[in-house]
Specification:
The complex is a heterodimer of chains A (354) and B (340). Chain A has 354 residues and is an all-alpha fold. Chain A is built from 14 helices and two strands; from the N terminus they run ααααααββαααααααα. Chain A has a two-stranded antiparallel ribbon with strand order 1-2. The longest helix of chain A has 39 residues. The C terminus of chain A is likely disordered. Classes of the chains: A mainly alpha (354), B mainly alpha (340).
Amino acid sequence: MTVLDHAAKTSPTETAALLRRRRHAAARRTAALVTLLAALLVGLLAVALTVDLKRVPLSEVAPAALGLRDGLADYVIFKIRMPRALTAVLAGALFGLSGVLYQRLIRNPLATPDIIGVSAGAGAGALTMLVLLPALPHGMTLAALAGAFAAVGVIHTLSRRRGTVDTYRVVLVGIGLSALFTSYHTYLFTLADDQDQATAMRWFVGSAAGADWTSVTILAWSLGACALGAVLLERPLSGLTLGDEMATGLGARVPLARTATLLLGAAAAALATSVVGPIAFVALISGPIAARLAGADRAGWLAAPVGAVLVLASDVIAQHAPVISPVPTGACTALIGAPYFVWLILRRTTGDPT
Amino acid sequence: MSDTSPPAARPARGAAVLLLGAVALIVVVVGGIGLGARDIAPWDTVRILLHPDAQGYNAHVLWTERIPRTLLAVLVGAALGGSGMIMQALTMNPLADPGILGVEQGAALFVVCGVLFLDLNDAHDYFWLALAGAAVSALLVYTIGVRANTGSATLGLVLAGVAVAALTVSVITLLVVRDEAAFAQLRFWSVGQLTGRADVLDDILPFAAVGLLAALPLGRTLNVLGLGADTATGLGVNVARARLVGAAIGVLLCAAATAAVGPVAFVGLVGAHTARLLVGPDHRWSLPMSMVCGAVLLCAADIAGRLAGGDGEVQVGVMTAVIGTPFFVWLARRADLVRV
């Protein structure tokens, strides 16, 4: 029985009580799912720290992860594995957040920063800085932000026609722009010397390899700031999902909320890209996975943990899977993400928000 | 002249434009032979061309590098232009292009497998793998694209292409990233370029020539298919067979081009639309014109890449993306293209 059927038969107070019960049930379900995902993350972290471990006893892993050991255990666990795993978690969360912000704002599940070229723009910015001024402090982070904002501006301008922005045109224009950025990557990539190819490859497909505690710090601050922004934008954004007129009627400042969300999503994708490169498909699939787990209206809260789980799991596979490893993280996320993307465009019914 | 063809068939104009295209082609071929990183005086170039057995470094550069390379660019460009026009006509999708739809990447994946696992090193050998890969990915993209539920058939096909291309590119990455020798060899091939590929010309010429010759008489069939399946059947065309033959030739052309230089996107797209702008929608004229436009575009992009690179060169795949992306975006902005 739907709420409306129920409301037709019962008194307003009973209907209100029913709605409240449903909201509480959904909130409990979301909390349970967040706990579950957190447990999954801890489990994956344990796997990432311990799998294929040679010459470091398992009993040493936990203390070494907190930085309490010296020598080999400290080097392998605290200097290499721990920062890499945390980088994967934080970058995945940022990608997931950026994707769900765009999906909710643009109301098209395909219009995520990785598909429409915002991540590629950030990568182009960071890579240019890497080639031109590698010594500038935070140069790559700032250049990635600049590249992502420029990409958003160009896509927004080019998708506009007679004052309206068509969501499918956003996707098409973005795909075109992505191709341009990718060919720029390719150009810089073939300029690289042989010994720089690992670096170049990382900027091509994205990888958490070589992450250190500096990357973790940058990403932690980024995630904190972006999550705060997302919390502040939550009310206006849920107003926007009702449509621009309705949102204006409810008191939201629509253009401001829209611009802020576009920039916040681009910033989240850019900050993650500036550290791990343009890891594909995480922003695209985190939102829909979260929506299937918790329902469309609560997907916003779950997309970041889902993204974190996806990237960490992909990174573990990329490093340790038999036969294929070691490969860049992004190659593994594409192997999972591209089939899911196909499934998404095959099954989606028109008008479904996420 | 057949009654079943749409109007706008103005042979006089078509012939004139085709002639103009031929002139443009001659200009870029002359440019491709005359221009490059090494300055060779025009007079020297003419003298070397007149004396094929001349000695010296300039003669060597011309005969073993620039001339085969320019001819390869013409051949590959024509193949991609023809392939793009056939794919657009068959799918009725103005954004169809062998590179955008992921067909070239599929061919590339099979070639990479051949190089890694079967020790193939000649384009002559791995052409068949490229053909199989192109056919498989074309079938896959088409199957996904027609079932896609994205509000617009145009977009469905493009998205299917993007997904298949992403998948094949990441499998290529998985395959080559650890094998340093393969990586060094495939790094340049996988981005699409003409540098140092002059020796491929002899290997690929028969396949490309067969494809181009087979494509030329397709114009009338494509015109009839463009009227819709029912009308075409009413006019006595076996629609399924006509589509299959068209698709096979389109895939063959794309495979020949990819086996020769690696995946190069946007040439088919730009070639087909330029041809349609110039000679109108009649495929009997626009299909050959698209081949000419593709050849001119790839040759010009190659020359531009040679001159723009400074010390090195800009790969021709990068140059065509620089030219092709604005074109793609302009098409995507057209009002009649995207319907929700």
